[in-house]
Amino acid sequence: MKMYLNSIFTDPERTARLMDIAQSSFLPLLKGAIFYTIPLTIITFIVGLILAILTALARISHVKVFQMIARVYVSAIRGTPLLVQLFIIFYGLPNIGIIIDSYIAAIIGFSLSVGAYTSEIIRAAILSTPKGQWEAGYSIGMSYSQVLRRIILPQAARVSIPPLSNSFISLVKDTSLASLVLVSEMFRKAQEIAASNYEFLLVYSEAALIYWVICFILSIIQQVFEKKLDRYV
Amino acid sequence: MISIQGLYKQFGNLEVLKGIDLEVEKGNVVVIIGPSGSGKTTMLRCLNVLETPTKGIISIEGNTLDFSGTVPKKNIASFRRLTGMVFQSYNLFPHKTALGNVMEGPVIVKNENKDHARKKAQALLEKVGLEDKVDFYPAQLSGGQQQRVGIARALAMEPKVMLFDEPTSALDPELVGEVLKVMKDLANEGMTMIVVTHEMRFAREAADEVIFMDQGVVVERNRPEIIFTNPKEDRTRKFLNMIQ
Ligand SMILES: Nc1ncnc2c1ncn2[C@@H]1O[C@H](COP(=O)(O)OP(=O)(O)OP(=O)(O)O)[C@@H](O)[C@H]1O
Ligand SMILES: [Mg+2]
């Protein structure tokens, strides 16, 4: 530890080498973030959110079969590690002839996970909307789906923005697991770079910093969003 | 014009409506009074099918729903459009402005052109005295103002009959008058109305008929001046003594 720190600050040659690596690895890492981590996060979150809304609706529907399917899905996803799910999809399915590109496999795995976890957020938000809102919608002649789309979901969205933002930010970080199914997202890039120059501390810290900056920006966006939605409360 | 025949409603083992028969003439205002739990709200909710009656027949201007059999969802939706409901707790859509609340039904349910619906909504809000509040959200309005938006929202669907469930009982006393005035204006214009209320002055001044309900049945019905001065039934007399 001491030696390492010493060498950074006392050995000018080593300092120069580290500066050089930090600089040359920045662009590949940023590319990994921009072309893989961020799109993966966004696509996954959108697909996951759609799954989550469907799951939440199934849970609150009066059709027993829908309820059952939704329950089993949520329970299975929450009861197994995300990494194991990714491995089953990417390394396991080929055994029965289903071969999925690593990027698609990651999208499927993360979406299923987001769908299960956030369905509970959305279900709670829908249930927190007063019954009178449904009745007011029905009383002006709206159908179930009209009330849901126009009256309930917009109000549920307002309630669920804070917890959903947290899920989104977690997802940014979770996408690093995709490195293990060979998606060349930021963390995989970091692993490749570090493997070639052995400067693990430096390169991984640099990746961490980029994750942090992304999440920091997201949390600012979250705050602006929440303020805007607070308008009519 | 409106007729209810043999209306029953049961919640589990609790029989709340025990065979209601009622006729309301077009343009008449009927006020329903009765003790708490007598089934007044339930009856109104059956009329616009927010509750499904256990059995009975309801009919409005020739549109009939018979609950002895199963009633298709489609028929319920179209039947519902004949009635406008005003709720005790207003139930305005909090994420929409006063104007948005009133336009919602015409635009979404009736597929009306937006500009046309907006003009109509503005006129309705003016009618209830809220022309300067069109762009306010419910949270920015007083209870009385919210309830008037609620009335405008129901009117926007051009219902054949307006149902009011204790429209003023959540209001501070000083705000009751403004809502009752709007209701009286409506009555004077010839709107058919069924009003559950504890406002006896409104009943006396605006009702064509007062109905006294108790324990799920209609005990007595008569013109207000008779009910309030010389009720036939003991139960009616007792109730009126209690609330006056
Ligand atoms: N959804 C429901 N499930 C079970 N019981 C209900 C339901 N709605 C109403 N009830 C019961 O039905 C009875 C009649 O209720 P209702 O609300 O129609 O009375 P009300 O005459 O409107 O009374 P109030 O003057 O207090 O408003 C009450 O005993 C009530 O508890
Ligand atoms: Mg009631």
From TrEMBL, chain B:
Ranges where the ABC transporter domain occurs: 2-240
Localization, UniProt: Cell membrane
Pfam families, per database record: ABC_tran
Transport in keyword set: yes
EC number per UniProt: 3.6.3.-
The name this protein goes by in its record: Cystine transport system ATP-binding protein
Listed CDD domains: ABC_HisP_GlnQ
